[in-house]
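Single-chain item
Fold in token form
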Amino acid sequence: MSDMSRISIQVGEFEFEYEGSQIEVDEKFAQFKEEGFWNIMTERLQEARDVNLDANAVVSKEQDVSKRGLEFRNLVENCSLEGKPDRVLGALHFLRDVEGVKDCPPRVINDLFEEANIEPPGNLSLYINRLKEKQFLNIANKHGDKNRFAELTEFGRKHLEDKARN
């Protein structure tokens, strides 16, 4: 096992890279922050984020996409949710974990897709059952087998996180 640590950060033309012991890396990074470069990098990231949000807002106005639809569309695109089962998983995550909706009947899920100008998946029961088989979703016993109460499992959340990293 190596006692070496490494950090590498690049934002536009600004780059910080250092390798050494953990203490050395921490000291160099603290020095880098003190010199103001860290603030410049975070400002650049914020500017890029703002430009992206502004561009998406223009597109959403042109396509008549609601703010809610835009947020869901960004989730789908940023996590590379290309298949219908993954999009259904993303919709359930968005509705339950982002918006706090407890009851997600097919109408609510389809409305979310329509607000985002994304073609609804169609047979939601089919996709929800496939996601349950993969152990990405679970339905609490108190709700019987009603798909409208499907919740993401830790395995389902990890799947979405893995998709977002790729």
